[in-house]
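User: Predict structure, ligand iron/sulfur cluster.
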Amino acid sequence: MKGEARANVEAWLEYFSELRISSFYLDRAEPAGATAAGSSVTSTAPATATYVPTSSAAMRAKLQASAPAPVAPLPVVKSASLFEAGPRVENDTLERIREDIGDCKRCRLCQQRNKIVFGSGSARADLVFVGEGPGRDEDIQGLPFVGRAGKLLTQMIEAMGLKREDVYICNVVKCRPPENRAPEPDEMDTCSPFLYRQLAVIKPKAVVCLGAIAFQALYGAKQSISRLRGQWLEFRGIPMMATYHPAYLLRNPNAKGEVWEDLKKVMVHLGLKVPARS
Ligand code: SF4
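Assistant: Predicted complex:
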């Protein structure tokens, strides 16, 4: 083989070599009288029987078009959580954690709360949703996600083919921050060990962080939720995914589609049936 045909074959094989597809080299013997000293591109087949693309550039373009999209590298955890740094509680239970919280006054959020919102759902749930903190309705009822955002979360759970009783729902801080402000870092640091204990007891197959605060509490680093949502990360060996908070969806209904895409990944992970056209 000579000239342009040879150059095309060399470019073609080199490209496949870059993709680590090279098995067609294996049973190839060096033919007697091979030309182009130093070249590894040889063939025992007659030149007329070899497929030669008219353009290596065209072949690259075709292959690149059919190649899977590159996977973005996951961000690196910046620091260990308080729970990771602290001792585990032997034979822990949700009841014991609630008893330990007691009539908690460990942080300033106790001052204006009505009720501590511990969490609700199945202690053996495969899936735990973690939010930021109680709002007004939750503070009155002592239950997580029972206001407008909670109703939307219930719809999301039911769209997954589950009921609220099948999952566990809790928050990073157990008392309502005044005026629904975000919890301060010291409040999160004080309260989140209870959340870590809840997760250690439940041992879910997946955790969904609802919003940036929940993500920060479990991941140990502040990150943009729009950048991280939909990616599988990990909290103490538990697969974890962040997505938008239902309260954000009430203000930005267009983001519901993105959240549904995230939840479909969770459904696949849990072995739940994903609706064919959704
Ligand atoms: S938010 Fe947590 S640490 Fe603070 S008072 Fe409430 S239960 Fe205690």
